[in-house]
């Protein structure tokens, strides 16, 4: 009887436990993806994102409150033993299909659009599904870099755009590159990667953008 009582108490406690904070869960996801960023670096972006989404939503009267809260909640409740699995995929799908397009169209400043584009880009690149495996292989085959190097370069470029409030649709270029990599299209992958390099602070910069004061991920 005591065993059943103890099990029942533990079960209730597990069901009512508070989820991780959004920024804490994002940090775990970033580490699981293999990127070497500190908790403070992750917090700079992940604490800004929910505020940004809500600001644009209320400013433009988009009525996305439920979807934004659902996305944040889905990220917070992702199990720690499957950080980039099914629930991460569902959260990214919700953001990419129903939240990102409307928020991006209503962003009034360049840095806002870039911050949202960074989120969308990393949600795709961090997936563990077939999409991820194909992109990982084609990065090495077509571009002669690892997927981690590509992710770091993309983070650095987005950091520059966010800091300098550059009013240019960077997501258009990163999305085209990812689609070319996923579609096994070497010609367009190389062409879009060259476009991406032209947006770099310098043509040889590779690696975490600590000097820029912000990093990018989910």
Automatic annotation (TrEMBL):
The lineage of its organism: Eukaryota, Metazoa, Ecdysozoa, Nematoda, Chromadorea. Keywords: Signal. This is Uncharacterized protein. Residues 1-17 form the signal peptide.
């Amino acid at each position: 009887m005591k065993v059943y009582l103890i099990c029942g108490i533990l079960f209730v406690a597990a069901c009512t436990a508070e989820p991780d904070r959004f920024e804490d869960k994002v940090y775990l996801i970033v580490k699981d993806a293999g990127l070497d960023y500190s908790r403070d670096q992750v917090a700079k972006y992940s604490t800004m994102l929910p505020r940004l989404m809500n600001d644009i939503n209320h400013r433009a009267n988009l009525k996305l409150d439920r979807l934004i809260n659902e996305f944040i909640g889905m990220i917070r409740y992702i199990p720690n033993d499957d950080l980039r699995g099914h629930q991460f995929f569902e959260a990214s799908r919700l953001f990419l299909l129903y939240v990102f397009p409307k928020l991006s169209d209503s962003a009034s400043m360049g840095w806002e659009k870039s911050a949202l584009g960074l989120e969308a880009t990393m949600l795709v690149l961090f997936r563990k599904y077939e999409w991820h495996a194909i992109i990982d292989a084609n990065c090495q085959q077509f571009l002669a870099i690892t997927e981690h190097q590509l992710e770091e370069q993309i983070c650095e470029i987005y950091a520059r755009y966010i800091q300098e409030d550059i009013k240019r649709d960077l997501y258009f270029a990163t999305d085209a590159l990812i689609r070319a990599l996923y579609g096994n299209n070497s010609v367009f992958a190389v062409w879009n990667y060259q476009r991406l390099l032209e947006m770099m602070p310098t043509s040889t910069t590779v690696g975490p953008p600590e000097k820029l004061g912000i990093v990018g991920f989910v």
